[in-house]
Amino acid sequence: MQAAPWFLVLNGKSAGDEAVRDAVAQLRGQGQPLQVRVTWEAGDAERYVLEAIAALAPVVIAGGGDGTLSEVAEAMAHTGLDATQLPELALLPLGTANDFATAAGISDEPLAALQLPAQTPARTIDLLRIDGDGTVHWCANLASGGFGTEVTVETHDGLKKMLGGLAYVITGISRLGRIEPIRARIHGEGFQWEGGFIALGIGNGRQAGGGQVLCPDALLDDGLLDLTIVPELSGEVMPTLSTLFSEGKHAALEQVAERVHLRELWIEAEQLMTLNLDGEPLQARHFHIQCVAARVRMHLPLETPLLSG
Prior knowledge:
Blueprint: E1 6-11, H1 18-29, E2 34-39, H2 44-54, E3 59-64, H3 66-78, E4 88-93, H4 99-104, H5 110-119, E5 122-132, E6 135-139, E7 142-146, H6 147-154, H7 157-163, H8 166-175, E8 182-188, E9 191-203, E10 207-208, E11 212-213, E12 225-231, H9 238-247, H10 250-256, E13 258-262, E14 264-277, E15 280-299
Parallel strand pairs: 1-2, 1-3, 3-4
Antiparallel strand pairs: 5-6, 5-15, 7-9, 7-14, 8-9, 8-14, 9-12, 10-11, 12-13, 14-15
Helix pairs in contact: 1-5, 2-3, 6-8, 9-10
């Protein structure tokens, strides 16, 4: 009897990628059954995940960028099944910046990424659950607000296509002189902060927006979210800010940021603010963000720095 196939949930933008087509053909030629499903509109990823579960697929591969990964992970979380009842998750990085894959050390070579589930055991990882004024989303990598969010949202698709992650840096530099801080109260167990911030990172993973390392110590399996707040800055430290967003230096972050590890946190903003959930903007004034431990199982490189132990 033939083994149940893996499922590749492929972002429609990459459907014509010849390297992906070749890698799929090679994997099948090596004896691994693989079903490919292409997303076209909202809801497709969830429908394909449910199809994979019904087919007893052992592995579902998200083919795309950080947004596609979160979309597939969210679809798994929405089933209500626990991690042991769900297919294992993997990633074929095909996005502009591939922040999650870069931090995790997942190869951007399609065949190598597709082969990873056969080469490494799946490990349980956490997910972020974000409730914004009653609207609930899930996030696999990082939720960001303030300057970093505006850079990501404002970066033109054409520029991203031409320049990749560098497009975010160029857009960020162009905005340095017109940053408006967002005023909010942020609190969690044993932690309270209130004031104006220009950047906010809530990490399951470590970076977003084309290499902005906002949560440099985040781990995917510690049951904690990593919170980084960059408060509004004086003109004297703007060069530090430039270094932070263009190069992602840990040292620059330490100079200006408030950082803490929490299981959950609340944000109360004075006006509507946007959180970017791996490319998906969510607007609200009140957010409740939880780290849901061991929510899915995922195949990652053995030497990835994103796992404890």
